[in-house]
Amino acid sequence: MSAETWSDRVLGGFRKTSERLTENISGLVGKTRLDDAQLDELEDALILSDLGPRAAARIRERLAGERFERGADERAIREAVATEIAAILRPVAKPLDIVAFPRPQVILVIGVNGSGKTTTIAKLAHLFQEQDYGVLLAAGDTFRAAAIGQLAVWADRLGIGLVRGAEGGDPASIVFDALKQATATGIDALIVDTAGRLQNKRELMDELAKIRRVLGRLNPAAPHDVVLVLDATNGQNALQQIETFREVAGVTGLIMTKLDGTARGGVLVAAAEQYGLPIHAIGVGERIDDLRPFDPDLVARVIAGIA
Known about the structure:
Layout: H1 6-13, H2 15-25, H3 36-48, H4 52-64, H5 74-89, E1 105-110, H6 117-130, E2 135-139, H7 145-158, E3 161-163, H8 171-185, E4 189-193, H9 201-218, E5 225-231, H10 236-249, E6 253-257, H11 267-275, E7 279-283, E8 291-292, H12 296-303
Helix pairs in contact: 2-3, 3-4, 4-5, 4-11, 5-12, 6-7, 8-9, 10-11
């Protein structure tokens, strides 16, 4: 059994991002204040590290007013950057809590194919199980047989129920059956997988609207959450997905995965600054327990290279 802590995993997961940022700001030293040229350099470094122009401008502005009593060495600059990243992340760090009454809490999980959506559903289910919640899964992505099969394997492994239909079946009727079953059996959380096609926004919008309508017949408050799974390796393209899915699906929160495989973890900060949507959890590995609510202060320090 590994003694590796979650902090260690976060540290490992963001290592490439941290190296990229610290490489970009290395050699930045100044007197008690940074001059305009240095601030420009810092802002460029933050943008190159995928923190996005808005967050970069905000951090630049903060550092423009910063007095470095002992001189602006690299460590002091990183500390100041970490403080401002934490200020951006803290308001959006919101774990996904099961609070619905009556039960179940219905969580629609959306995201493009390849974002790690199905695996994330399994990890989320495991996270709820650890908190002693009863969980049921619904295989609403009926367009990919692989998605139904993958979810079935995870449900079996976790020992939880799965409501599924035939490949190409009607997702809304599967979701309706799942909510009926979850309500009857007193399940705490119903997690619904949905199709990840973005080629045709109208089709996806219509399908999600139908799912919402059907859910509403049984529980007017459902879905309680519409969670978008983002693959951090997509960098700035992940922000475009937030824009699209927010418009199409009424996204209420985000989960960011694959942070361990990329130097683009800064996109977490860009998403927080640009959209302000709750970030429920982050994934930093392949294991079932590699998805957790994130600690904004820890993540900020790790990205800035001082953890």
